[in-house]
Amino acid sequence: QKQLVESGGGLVQPGGSLRLSCAASGFIAGYYAVGWWRQAPGKEREGVACIFMSDGTTYYADSAKGRFTISRDSAKDLVYLQMTSLKPEDTATYYCGGRGGNSCPTRDDYWGQGTQVTVSS
């Protein structure tokens, strides 16, 4: 059974940093992709970043480039999202999703329950 569990959310001041973690299970070892999406109140869910567990290929949304870094620990089936220079508009529930193979997860794939990130002074 495929499962993803997020952790690491919380309250942070503008300009601060936070690292989210996603623990994946049930996928073919080393042959799946994990993506981070986020959804703010009243807004559509949007993609943030994605990584291929096979070779570490990464993709970023424009809003994340230069501030967020996605990385993986393939041996532990863990994916991280390091977020820096956080802004109030980054406030959202962050979800990690998984998809078999080398393509980023979509809305129809497997998703965790989300972790809340609040950027506020």
Shape: globular
**From the helix content, strand content and strand pairing, which structural class follows?**
mainly beta
- Using only C-alpha atoms, the radius of gyration works out to 13 Å
Number of helices: 0
Q: Which percent range describes the beta-strand content?
A: over 45%
Distance between the termini: 40 Å
State the low-pLDDT regions, or none: none
Describe the structure.
It is a single chain. The protein has 121 residues and is mainly β. It contains no helices and eleven strands. The strands form two sheets. Strands 2, 4, 5, 6, 9, 10 and 11 form a seven-stranded mixed beta sheet that branches. A four-stranded antiparallel beta sheet has the order 1-3-8-7, with no helix packed on it. Strand 4 and strand 5 form a beta hairpin. It starts with a strand and ends with a strand.
Summarize this entry quickly.
With 121 residues, the protein is mainly beta.
Could you list some keywords that capture this structure?
121 residues; mainly beta; 7-stranded mixed sheet; 4-stranded antiparallel sheet; 11 strands; 0% helix; globular
